[in-house]
Each structure stands twice: as structure tokens, then as C-alpha cells.
Fold:
Amino acid sequence: MRTVLGLLWLPLALAACGDDESGGSDGRPSVVVTTGILGDVVRNLVGDVIEVEVLMPPNADPHDFAPSARQAGSMREADVLVVNGLDFEEGLLDTIESAEADGTVVVAAADAIEPLAGDPHLFTDPARMRDAAEAIAAELVEQIPALDTAAFQERVDGYLAELDDLDAEVEALLADIPDDARVLVTNHEVFGYFADRYDFEVLGAVVPGGSTLSEPSAADLAELLTEIEEHEVPAIFADTSSPARLADALAGEGADVEIVELYSESLGEAGSDGDTYIGMVRANAERIAAALG
Structure:
């Protein structure tokens, strides 16, 4: 009986939301999401019941992305603003703060997990992303009563199960990599959560720190080159969302390594193997397994 009543009530609730100053352009409640990764997750959770606007396009660099005036307005007018958190969206921090000050409810995915030394890249671990998705869904129901239906919960449970399956699939894909080959060198520090989940060592990063806005020194490159040679590292993993020139430069210094691109901070273009969150994580695991296995 609860399911029937919930489904009958939903159109009335959505119509009522259209009378409010907030909400989407078509009268549905609206959620604005900063990154394409989180946008895909949120859309899988809510379906077409609410309007979801994603700010960053595929292959955007989240560290220097800045919103347009229209996007800043959408952030202020949204029923809920979903962000990564832990200062991941460096170019959006002031706009996020302003939207929250204006009364927009801000939900940070990172609030659902125990961070690793302030690292914002939780999405490289699908198990942590599963926890974040569950927390986001709960907050959306709290803020948008129209979502409080059995049909919505069934959809959420289905997607959480897909993320559980993804975690198991990634573990299986990586299973044949020998222990002494489970070493990652990346363009910048992105895969800490991935390494923690699947028992890898992050040997180093070409760009120090978790932001692509940093620059390596000659000493940093020389030290990392020494580490690569000592550990006989076969590949450097570079971000598809930022140029691989620094990784290429390191290889040019004499490191005989392959440059392998991973979807680290943004989804790929439509039609690519990384155009969804699940596809992105699966493609990364396949590429890492091929490079190190």
C-alpha cells in the first residue's frame, strides 16, 4: 500500500515544488552537481524524477574549472548542491561557499568517508564511493520529500549493488598482478584510495600533491626517476583530464617507461569506455592490469 500511495503522491509533490522559487526549469526539484563523476552517480540514484545539472564537462580539470555566471546562478537556486568536498573543486570554492550562504543545501561526498590525509580523490575506490552514494541518497530524500518512495529506494539499492559488484570485479581484474609489481607512479597524486583498497604502493607522482596546479622541481623529477629505475617501474599513469607533458618529460629524462592514460578526475567523452563512473573505474583497472600484470 505504501508503494502505491507513494507513486500516486509523487506527481502532486513535484507540481507543488514547481511553485517554489527553487527547483528546475521544468518544475521538477533540481540538484546541481559539480563533477561529471558525481553527476553520473546522482543520475543513477534519482533517474528522471528530479532535474540534475552537472557543471563540469567530460575531461575537465576540476582543480581549475570556474563556473559561468549562469552556472553560479544554478548553484544558488538549486534544491541541493552536491560537491566532492575536501577542496577538490578549487576553482569553485568561493561559489560553493556563496551558494551555501544564500541557503542552498550543500552535500559533500567526502563527508561520508574517513579521508586519507585530506586526499579528496575518494572516487578511485568504488567501495568508498558506494558509501558516499548511499549518504547522498539519504540526504536527497531528507531535502526533497518527493523522493521518499519505495520506487526511489529500490533504484538506490540497485545502484549500490552495482557498485558492490564493481568493487569485486576490480579486485578480480587486478588479482594476477604480482605483489612486487603493485607499484603506481602517477602524473599527480590521485590514486591513494585505490592503492589503499587494492593493496598497491604509490611510489610517487610527477606533480607533487593532489592538485594539477602544482609544478614539479628538477630535484623532484630526478628523485622520482631514481625511484622508477630502482623499482623497474614499467609504466607511468597519466590523467586524461590534464596534459601528460610532465610524465612525458620524465620519460624523456631517461626513464624507459610506458605512459598509460587513466580516467582519474573526470569522465571520458560520450561513447568512450570511461563515460560513466562504473565504466571509468573498470577501464582504469583493465589498463593497470595490462600495464603491470
Q: What stands out?
A: The CA atoms of residues 8 and 266 lie 38 Å apart. Confidence is low (pLDDT under 50) at residues 1-22. Residues 2-170 form a domain with the Rossmann fold fold (CATH 3.40.50.1980). Strands lie at 30-33, 51-54, 80-83, 105-108, 183-188, 201-207, 235-239, 258-262.
